[in-house]
Design brief:
Rossmann fold, alpha/beta, about 50% helix, about 325 residues
């Protein structure tokens, strides 16, 4: 488990980032959904991180990391691994700061996302490997080349940036009863959970996973980081294993109150609901969080429930195939 001192330091870093990242990082809306509320019986609020710069919450953590780079680190540049959203967020944040970026990605990652990373000025190197292996390779290349490796999730400065969502949410809905968050490597829910649990400990933090790709959920169930076999999922942004020794594992142990797995059919239904009721295109990972909230809605009747709509970066053809 993470120590109280480390936990407290992370919260302090989140509160510092909450002020320091403005105005470059947008304050995203919290939209009440009358139709989804009527459908579910809970009062559903949607935290619109799909409206963040680069179309994803990842810009927050990347911006915080770039903000805190040393002069030497800025000169030589940074390396990361990403299926898309983290790479885009880091590429934009680094471009604005004049920092070179190299992004390693899986060869089968979304071409739309990889092209978006290149358009923001980053170099992209693809590997015919799984996401966790790509992360480990990128970290090794950074070590060999004397550059900083920026993990998509296993970095307290990145987590602190993501945690600013939690502080924003409490400013927008101080009496929120539950928050549903899609989980991949755990950086998003670690940051949000740390912020909310320190200020409103009674709020439930619910981690949501696709049944096809439940890496962190299985690690939490096992009480340790383990290898987890995954299959294809619409939620490509949360796919992949958990890096050995990741700080997000003990943070997830501390902040997650409930865990929920959703099927691919439930993810598709959530994407359809967002399109039908809100006229939004959202990506699979955002659908996972909404699907989790809809699955458990009967247990939150009349309560104030927030769903983190974490991104919108999905191939149009993939989205249309899911919702038709």
């Amino acid at each position: 488990m993470i120590s109280d001192e480390s936990y407290s330091r992370l919260f302090d870093s989140i509160t510092e980032a909450h002020q320091a990242l403005r105005p470059g990082v947008a304050v995203t809306p919290l939209a009440h959904s009358p139709r989804l509320s009527a459908q579910s019986g809970a009062q559903l609020y949607l935290k619109c991180e799909h409206l963040q710069h680069t179309g994803s919450f990842k810009f927050r953590g990347a911006s915080n990391k770039v903000r805190l780079l040393t002069a030497a680190q800025r000169r030589v540049g940074v390396i990361t691994a990403s299926s898309g959203n983290h790479g885009q967020g880091l590429a934009l944040a680094a471009r604005e700061a004049g920092v070179p970026v190299t992004v390693y990605a899986c060869a089968d990652a979304s071409a739309f996302k990889l092209d978006a990373i290149r358009a923001l000025g980053a170099e992209v190197i693809t590997l015919d490997s799984d996401p966790l292996s790509v992360e480990l390779h990128a970290a090794e290349q950074a070590r060999r080349q004397g550059q900083l490796y920026v993990s998509p999730y296993n970095d307290t400065q990145v987590i602190a940036g993501q945690g600013t969502i939690g502080l924003e949410l409490l400013e927008q809905l101080p009496d929120v009863d539950a928050v549903f968050v899609a989980v991949g490597g755990g950086g998003l829910i670690s940051g949000i959970g740390t912020a909310i649990k320190r200020l409103r400990p009674g709020t439930e933090i619910i981690g949501c996973w696709p049944s096809n790709a439940p890496a962190m959920e299985r690690c939490l169930a096992a009480g340790q980081i383990v290898d987890v076999a995954e299959t294809d999922t619409l939620s490509d942004g949360t796919a992949g294993g958990v890096e050995p020794g990741s700080i997000t594992f003990p943070l997830c142990q501390r902040v997650i109150d409930r865990r929920v797995l959703v099927s691919e059919a439930e993810i598709r239904a959530a994407l359809q609901a967002a399109a039908r009721h809100e006229r939004w295109i959202i990506e699979g990972a955002a659908g996972v969080a909404l699907a989790g909230a809809l699955q458990l809605a009967a247990q939150y009747q009349g309560k104030r429930v927030a769903v983190i709509i974490c991104g919108r970066n999905i191939l149009l053809e993939k989205f249309l195939g899911a919702v038709q």
